[in-house]
Amino acid sequence: MTNPATVRPQATRIDGKAFAEKLRARLAAEIATLGFQPGLAVVLVGEDPASQVYVRNKATQTVEVGMRSFEHKLPASVSEAEVLALVTRLNADPAVDGILVQLPLPPHIDADKVLLTIDPAKDVDGFHPVNAGRLATGAQALVPCTPLGCLMLLQDFHGSLAGMEAVIVGRSNIVGKPMAQLLLKADCTVTIAHSRSRDLPALCRRADILVAAVGRPEMVRGDWIKPGATVIDVGINRLPPDEHGKSRLVGDVHYGEAVQVAGAITPVPGGVGPMTIACLLHNTVTAAKARRGV
Ligand SMILES: NC(=O)C1=CN([C@@H]2O[C@H](COP(=O)(O)OP(=O)(O)OC[C@H]3O[C@@H](n4cnc5c(N)ncnc54)[C@H](OP(=O)(O)O)[C@@H]3O)[C@@H](O)[C@H]2O)C=CC1
Ligand SMILES: Nc1nc(=O)c2c([nH]1)NC[C@@H]1CN(c3ccc(C(=O)N[C@@H](CCC(=O)O)C(=O)O)cc3)C=[N+]21
Ligand SMILES: [Mg+2]
Q1: What is the CATH number of the domain that holds 83?
Q2: Nearest residue CA, atom 48 of ligand 1?
Q3: Residue 273 has what pLDDT?
């Protein structure tokens, strides 16, 4: 017989897809009152199928909220100088309020050099060192979309995050580090773990808020999670096709185990991914208003 004391209700599923739809509806209503159309330029180098899907989704949703979308698709063989020249043109184009250069770039192109060329005022990814520095020092900044989306979900679910123990697994410049800055600003006690961390399961078990941004399918297991904790799964991993030829999308968290232990959890798909795109549109509106003095 099951001991009733050990039976926990399943975690609340945090619906990022639904939240993102509401955010896009709010943006559409705001854009309709602006009197101008914000413009987002997306640069895609090469033919990576996953990147093509994301870029298409971004363009569709950009137009749906009433903004202009400028897509620039370049062959993988394009030179670094040509990419830099395109970014320089977009910087000078008054119809362009936001510039996103899809990562990763082919190895012969220095991604840091490209990001440094983007006008920080149009850097809607928040990847330029000027925006990273502003975020770290508490100034007004364009904030990376994925961590911003995670923060919105957390604040919607919890209200204040003050005093909570947050553990982030992953220290990339695009997810882990800016996530840490945002949670610190929200008054969490923040730990960043990475591939050299000792006893990752024990570190994770301290977390009231656990953010997994590792890129390893289902790495975070149920017994790494403090009962009742909130789990944000940033990972997007496409598994190779199974015997039926179906390829499954999974996060960095073992959802089936985690949902038995956590208090709340974001699913993959339908969690953080849709929030990333909605926050990109949000940042484009923010950049447009700032540039145009609204
Ligand atoms: N939902 C969304 O919108 C987005 C999802 N993603 C997804 O999020 C995940 C992370 O992306 P990103 O930050 O760009 O990835 P990176 O590969 O840049 O960084 C991964 C981080 O995880 C750490 N790591 C790797 N292996 C381990 C391990 N075994 N134990 C502990 N830490 C480990 C690395 O440590 P170290 O620094 O020591 O190497 C690194 O800090 C990916 O699945 C990606 O697809 C990314 C962007 C947007
Ligand atoms: N300059 C740049 N900025 C980025 O923000 C950026 C990037 N490069 N390179 C790639 C990563 C990845 N990324 C995702 C965006 C949306 C989903 C998304 O919408 N996911 C859906 C569905 C995904 C699917 O079905 O394939 C979901 O999780 O529900 C996922 C991943 C942005 N990235
Ligand atoms: Mg992003």
Answers
A1: 3.40.50.10860
A2: 146
A3: 97
ipTM exceeding 0.90?
yes
The pTM is what?
0.97
Using the structure block, give the residue that is written with the tokens 């620039």: 72
- Is residue 83 a contact partner of residue 108, using CB atoms and an 8 Å limit? no
Cβ of residue 195 lying under 6 Å from some atom of ligand 1:
yes
Any domain includes 136? no
What is the residue range of 81's domain? 36-126
pLDDT tens digits for range 81-131: 999 999 999 999 999 999 999 999 999 999 999 999 999 999 999 999 999
Q: Does 21 have pLDDT greater than 70?
A: yes
User: Is residue 263 marked as binding?
Assistant: no
Which ligand lies nearest the alpha carbon of 192? Answer: 1
pLDDT digits (tens, 9 = 90+) for 242-294: 899 988 999 999 999 999 999 999 999 999 999 999 999 999 999 999 999 99
Catalytic, out of 61, 97, 102, 123: 102
Grouping H, G, I as helix, E, B as strand and the rest as coil, residue 44 is: strand
Taking 3-state DSSP, the helix, strand and coil percentages for the chain, each rounded to the nearest 5, stand at 45, 15, 40
To the question of whether residue 79 is assigned a binding role by annotation, the answer is no
**172 Cβ inside 6 Å of ligand 1:** yes
User: What does the alpha-carbon distance between residue 54 and residue 288 come to, in Å, rounded to a whole number?
Assistant: 22
Q: 189-193 and 98-101 as β-strands: parallel, antiparallel, unpaired?
A: unpaired
Which CATH number covers residue 210?
Answer: 3.40.50.720
The domain tally of the chain equals 2
Residue 236, burial from CB neighbour count under 10 angstroms (0-12, 13-18, 19+): buried
Q: Is the pLDDT of residue 4 over 70?
A: no
